[in-house]
Each structure stands twice: as structure tokens, then as C-alpha cells.
Specification:
By secondary structure, the chain is of the alpha+beta class. Helix content is 42%, strand content 16%. It has 4 helices and 3 strands; from the N terminus they run H-E-E-E-H-H-H. A 3-stranded antiparallel β-sheet has the order 1-2-3. Strand 2 and strand 3 form a beta hairpin. Helix 1 packs across helix 2, helix 2 packs parallel to helix 4 and helix 3 packs antiparallel against helix 4. The longest helix has 25 residues.
């Protein structure tokens, strides 16, 4: 495995999650786990009347890459729609697989050194996958209640 992926920037990002606690009474929750390394990320979401993420909580028990990706997701998820989160999740998956462009997400290019390290891709994707699923659940729950 290339140590080029474990940069000081990745290490700093890993400890900067602005939402490191779970949400009480979240409308949507999703947990994703990497079968390769055992990393686990849980994302809780509440949405506002417009269906945008209004509150976010995370529980991250992950490797350095999973922690860094969770921070990057958390820093920019509030205010996004479930569709936007699904688009970035899909774009990230395609980019990591070599079949797509760099996703439109602030700072995502920090993971470029990991493009050739396919065993690390699941860790990078965990938070984005969980957030997209949790946001969709939250929106669906809001529709049922409304």
C-alpha cells in the first residue's frame, strides 16, 4: 500500500469532523461497513421543510481514510438535498473506479492518491453512502408525517 495516501492533510482532515455525535431522534439513519477493514460509519439526518439536510450526526469507527471522508462529508452536507448526496455518492464511486470525473464536492481531490488503491475505496465511500441513504430515509419519513 502506498504511503502517499496517508498525507498530513488526510491526517488533519480525519480529526476535524464538525458533527462527531449521533442525533437524538433522527428521521433517517444509515450505517455502512467496509468488509475489507471493518470500518463502520453511521450517519443520522434530519431534513427541513424543503427536504434539505438540516441536521447531521455521525458515529465514525473507521480507519484514517474513513475518518477523513466522514469529515469531508460532514463539512458540506448540511443544506444538501438527498438527490445531491446521491449524485456525489455515485460520482465518487465512478471516480474511484476510474470511470468518472472528479466529483463536485469541496476538497474531494484530497483522495486522488488513493485512486489506484482499490482496497481503500470502500473506506472512502462509507460516509457518502450512509449520508445519501439517511437523507432519503429522512425525506421519506417527513413525507409520511406531513
Amino acid at each position: 500500500m502506498s504511503l502517499d495516501l496517508y498525507t498530513p492533510e488526510i491526517s488533519a482532515l480525519a480529526i476535524g469532523n464538525p458533527y462527531p455525535e449521533r442525533l437524538d431522534g433522527a428521521a433517517g439513519t444509515a450505517e455502512k461497513r467496509s468488509p475489507i477493514c471493518g470500518s463502520r460509519v453511521t450517519v443520522d439526518v434530519n431534513v427541513d421543510d424543503a427536504g434539505r439536510v438540516a441536521a447531521l450526526g455521525t458515529q465514525v469507527r473507521a480507519c484514517l481514510l474513513g475518518q477523513a471522508a466522514s469529515t469531508l462529508l460532514a463539512r458540506h452536507a448540511v443544506g444538501r438535498t438527498p438527490e445531491e448526496l446521491a449524485l456525489v455518492r455515485d460520482a465518487l464511486t465512478a471516480w474511484l473506479a476510474g470511470t468518472g470525473e472528479v466529483p463536485d464536492w469541496p476538497g474531494i481531490e484530497i483522495f486522488a492518491p488513493g485512486l489506484k488503491l482499490t482496497a481503500r475505496h470502500p473506506s472512502i465511500r462509507l460516509a457518502f453512502e450512509a449520508a445519501a441513504e439517511a437523507a432519503e430515509q429522512a425525506r421519506a419519513a417527513r413525507r409520511v408525517v406531513a
